[in-house]
Specification:
Shape: elongated
Number of strands: 25
Helix content: 10-25%
Oligomer: single chain
């Protein structure tokens, strides 16, 4: 069990502190004049200029979001960087940095090719994107068990989970001015066709250890669904338990493995020359993955040490040696997952985001605006919300910028964006979460980091 705990902790920490990918949207650009990709946060907020993106670099994001930080799991001891489990790191110091649920969320949306043009009474966008999403949740009791060892009476790590989705997205958007019906109103919508590439859904439904005066009780119940074309679980035979268990995966091909659809809806309303309000609901829809393989404990697996009776007689069926082997093997089986093969199709809802915004134009200098944006992601246990207050300026026609401050589920952050957009060329660079102190390897000690860069060609 000790070896098992160390293996699990290494895998979880590697996922949590070293995963990097792209954030799905850059909220620092929501109010920035001339920012090409405002329509991805609200399909009504389209530009008036035709454009085409630089292939692969039109909208490149890098970032992650969470409340488990690198400096919560890595510490300095005598000038050396060590894991939180090192004996010279005090238990109290570690647990002060650990939450009841520790989360890392990673979103990737890399623009492969995008374009926008005026036609059919409005403005139209076409985008081809690669999307990847990953979320890991590690309960605080997991860190307590790894750090303290088996010392407390009860450990419950049932909330340990990981969810990963990968798909390609083809998005067709249209927005138009509806002022002839309602003065100041503009509306837009984007229809998305999704091609699934792969998914993973791992969940410890039960992972419970109770230590009593006269015995231990342990329960596990886990399922791992993996959806990828050409993927099968690798198994290994355990001589001690006499059974095969999952210990890896095999891939012999890779390709499209699912289909889905999504919808973005948005509107903006200009109340007067000073005030504008907008709202959007993004990623309403689903995606289904085929070729799904299931690894499972097949329900509850339980070990109650009170059920083992040790007989000092070496010839008895329940001799000390025989009972110890049976107990050891039953403990091993707690975490050995069976390969149950193909389990059909898995369908997941998309993670919907609600954006609500208000923008005020400063009357004494109309190239300066102030904006307040609330963004809420609906994703079950990985949901989050944030409020972002920004000051935005466009002093000349070819340049605009934003500085903003956000407060939300994962704490406070400072963001910014600069956008250069002369005729026939557009370059932007920004951050929603500007990193603070960095480790020696230039890795941020805080897990909230986001960088956005893009090159596009207006015409």
């Amino acid at each position: 069990m000790k070896s098992y705990i160390k293996t699990i902790s290494a895998a979880v920490l590697a996922t949590c502190v070293s995963t990097g990918a792209a954030a799905q949207n850059t909220y620092s650009g929501y109010f920035v004049d001339g920012y090409t990709y405002r329509y991805q946060m609200n399909p009504a907020l389209t530009d008036t200029t035709n454009f085409v993106s630089f292939p692969g670099l039109g909208n490149l994001n890098i970032g992650m979001r969470g409340n488990l930080h690198l400096n919560s799991v890595l510490y300095n001891v005598d000038g050396k960087t060590v894991l939180f489990s090192h004996p010279d790191v005090p238990v109290s110091k570690v647990m002060d940095n650990i939450h009841s649920n520790n989360k890392i969320g990673v979103d990737a949306k890399i623009g492969i090719l995008s374009g926008g043009f005026k036609a059919w009474g409005g403005y139209n966008t076409i985008s081809i994107n690669a999307v990847a999403q990953a979320n890991v949740n590690v309960p605080g009791t997991f860190f307590s068990l790894v750090k303290e060892g088996v010392s407390n009476q009860t450990y419950d790590i049932s909330d340990l989970s990981a969810k990963v989705r990968g798909y390609a997205e083809i998005a067709l958007g249209h927005s138009r001015d509806l002022s002839k019906y309602v003065p100041g109103l503009r509306a837009g919508a984007t229809l998305k066709f999704l091609l699934g590439m792969g998914a993973l859904d791992a969940q410890f439904n039960k992972a419970y250890l109770q230590l009593g005066e006269n015995g231990w009780n342990a329960v596990t119940n886990a399922n791992i669904y993996t959806s990828m074309t050409g993927m099968k679980y690798k198994t290994k035979f355990d001589d001690k338990t006499g059974r095969d268990y999952v210990n890896g995966i095999d891939m012999d091909s890779f390709g499209i493995n699912g289909f889905g659809m999504g919808l973005d809806l948005g509107a903006s309303y200009k109340l007067n020359q000073d005030w504008e309000f907008s709202a959007a609901l993004l990623d309403l829809g689903f995606i289904s993955y085929g070729s799904t393989q299931l690894a499972s404990t097949q329900g509850d697996r339980m070990v109650e040490t009170n059920n083992y009776l040790f007989n000092p007689n070496d010839d008895a069926d329940n001799s000390f040696s025989n009972e110890w082997k049976r107990l050891r093997n039953d403990l091993l089986e707690l975490y050995q997952l069976d390969d149950l093969g193909a389990s059909g199709t898995k369908t997941y809802s998309l993670r919907t985001t609600l954006n609500l915004a208000a923008q005020y134009t400063f009357p004494l200098y109309r190239n300066l605006t102030f904006g307040l944006l609330n963004s809420t992601r609906f994703a079950g246990s990985f949901s989050w919300t944030q409020f972002r207050l920004s000051a935005n300026v466009a002093p000349v026609k070819v340049f605009s910028a934003s500085a903003n401050f956000a407060l939300g589920t994962y704490g406070a952050s400072f963001g910014w964006m600069i956008n250069v957009h002369p005729k026939y060329f557009n370059l932007f660079l920004g951050m929603d979460h500007t990193p603070g102190k960095l480790a020696k390897q230039f890795v941020p000690l805080n897990s909230n980091l986001q960088v956005n860069f893009g090159i596009n060609f207006p015409f």
